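new request in #modeling-help
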Amino acid sequence: MNRTNTVVLPYLGGTLTIGRGPIVVAAGPCSIESADHMAISGARARSSGATLYRGGIFKMRTSPTSFQGLGYPALDFIASAKQKMGLPFISEITDPRQIEAMLSVVDIFQVGSRNMYNYELLKELGRGQTPVLLKRAMSATIDEWIKAADYVVQGGNSSVILCERGIRTFETATRNTLDLNAVAYVKAHTNFPIFADPSHGTGRADLVAPMARAAVAAGADGLLIEAHDHPSCALSDADQAIGFDELAELVKSLEPVARAIGREIQT
Ligand code: PEP
Ligand code: MN
């Protein structure tokens, strides 16, 4: 199986190397809420030190009555908003029928926790060349997660990043339990670049910064962080959204942690 250890993306006229390069901070809202919201949050993510912008268009919500994302109509403004922002863009794909429409706007397809076992989606993404960030299902073993990633690789797309986003445990004080064992394990035993998502991993804004630093110390090649210009008003995952001032402080605080393990943060 031809797994690569780096995923390379165009970035501000240069390239962003994910995996063996500097640690990448991806940040932005859980859901893109409007064209203006993308413009504001994109600019603020960038000035806070993020080098990849995240934002959901198609959401997989537990309740069918919760906000489901803007969906296809959002694709009309995303290409131009993205160009103005200048950051590469990662967004979740929830159905293989979205691939064609999303191809022109995303730099990385995110496969969410709820779709880690959707092997037909993984096979379809394996037929393309767009990098895939594969989140761990909330109750998947590390072995099941790696095998899911190999569905993409086997199809011919070796650009796969794994993302630990917290697993279900008996603990109820936090939304999930961020499994940093998994970060260290993937790093030690596979070639895949590994991200950590301290936002879904904790479900609490106050725990995002400490767990982000812990993930970097454990060897994460990148972080996926939910940030919002008005966190309490976010249309999805408000409890875990941090503000952009907080994000800027957090990114700064990662530098000494990265240095301590001989790495740096991508700027
Ligand atoms: C998300 O990143 O907004 C998301 C839905 O994540 P997960 O699939 O980890 O729940
Ligand atoms: Mn979310």
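bot summary: Residues 30, 56, 60, 112-114, 135, 165, 200 surround phosphoenolpyruvate (ligand 1) (CB under 6 Å).
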